[in-house]
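User: I've been trying to design a sequence by hand for this structure and keep getting stuck. Would you show me what you'd pick, starting by listing the structure so we're on the same page?

Assistant: Good idea, let's start from the same input. This is the structure you sent:
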């Protein structure tokens, strides 16, 4: 498959944003969110910090890389406007990417300006990091769809939504489930950072203590949501690929299965090893890849016209079948 220059740039922009997200996790895991003080967009009131501490350097690099991310997405948006006609799927994807990169910057600025960084353990921070996670996932989804549509203009076409009620509902539940996994994971990671346990037994006692901080009590929810949602995704991936046996549908279904197993293993290892920073990054990367793959799987599945499918679906619908 030969990619045009716009598609290559879109995939590069997606990959770069993944790297920025991972570095953002380094900022949180090392408690460096207050490295530039309560100043934004400047760092401690300076454009370039002089003699920075390690925490300042980590936060400053994150701000620089995030700024470049904004530039890349803006360039992608302008390029899409110039290259594609109104209503073209890549143009829509680039426009959504622009919206979510701007809201990403606003949420990040809010975290700094309101002091929801470093050792802050307030409920407000918990809510905002959940919003931050959802916005980040929507940004990744928009960039993913932009790159996918630009790469496959003649292979399946844009989304075909008419008459796909059951399939859309099943995929929608899966997408929402992964969003909830991500939000609970972000809260769990914050709890691990603010209240580190010396041993696995101590960590379990913290989670089960009714008088423990709410961030510790919420950690119990994450593995439950992750495992149950993961098995749902495997079921849907297998079912859809059975009734929509297109090449990319089957490929993404297989990738989802592999990523789920790896993510489950990383989660268990993260628990046993008491969440070292490097493993938190691996866990986050896998979570992002699961989300991106699910978005691609959904796009590939919904690009297949239900009129071309054989009758007799395991997921009956009044209007159509899978």
């Amino acid at each position: 498959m030969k990619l045009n220059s716009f598609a290559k740039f879109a995939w590069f922009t997606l990959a770069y944003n993944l790297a920025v997200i991972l570095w953002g996790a380094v900022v949180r895991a090392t408690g460096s969110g207050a490295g530039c003080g309560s100043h934004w967009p400047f760092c401690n009131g300076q454009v370039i910090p002089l003699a920075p501490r390690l925490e300042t350097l980590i936060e400053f690099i994150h701000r620089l890389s995030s700024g470049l991310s904004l530039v890349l997405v803006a360039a992608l948006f302008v390029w899409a406007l110039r290259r594609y006609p109104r209503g073209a799927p890549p143009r829509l994807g680039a426009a959504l990417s622009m919206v979510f990169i701007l809201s990403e910057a606003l949420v990040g600025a809010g975290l700094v300006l309101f002091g929801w960084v470093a050792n802050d353990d307030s409920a407000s921070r918990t809510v905002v990091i959940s919003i931050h996670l959802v916005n980040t996932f929507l940004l990744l989804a928009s960039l993913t769809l932009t790159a996918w549509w630009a790469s496959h203009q003649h292979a399946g076409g844009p989304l075909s939504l008419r008459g796909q009620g059951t399939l859309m509902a099943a995929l929608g539940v899966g997408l929402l489930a992964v969003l909830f996994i991500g939000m609970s994971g972000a809260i769990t990671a914050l709890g691990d950072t603010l209240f580190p346990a010396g041993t696995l037994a101590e960590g379990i006692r913290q989670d089960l203590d009714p008088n423990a901080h709410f961030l510790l009590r919420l950690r119990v929810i994450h593995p439950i949501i992750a495992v149950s949602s993961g098995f749902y995704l495997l079921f849907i991936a297998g079912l859809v690929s059975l009734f929509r046996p297109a090449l990319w549908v089957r490929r993404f279904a297989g990738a989802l299965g592999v990523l789920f197993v790896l993510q489950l293993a990383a989660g268990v290892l993260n628990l046993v090893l008491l969440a070292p920073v490097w493993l938190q990054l691996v866990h986050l990367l896998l979570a992002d890849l699961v989300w991106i793959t699910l978005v691609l799987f959904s796009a590939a599945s919904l690009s297949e016209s239900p009129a071309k499918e054989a009758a007799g679906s395991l997921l009956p619908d009044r209007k159509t079948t899978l």
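That's my pick for every position. To get oriented when you compare it with your attempt: The chain has two domains: 1-125, 159-322. The domain at 159-322 is CATH 1.20.120 (Four Helix Bundle (Hemerythrin (Met), subunit A)).
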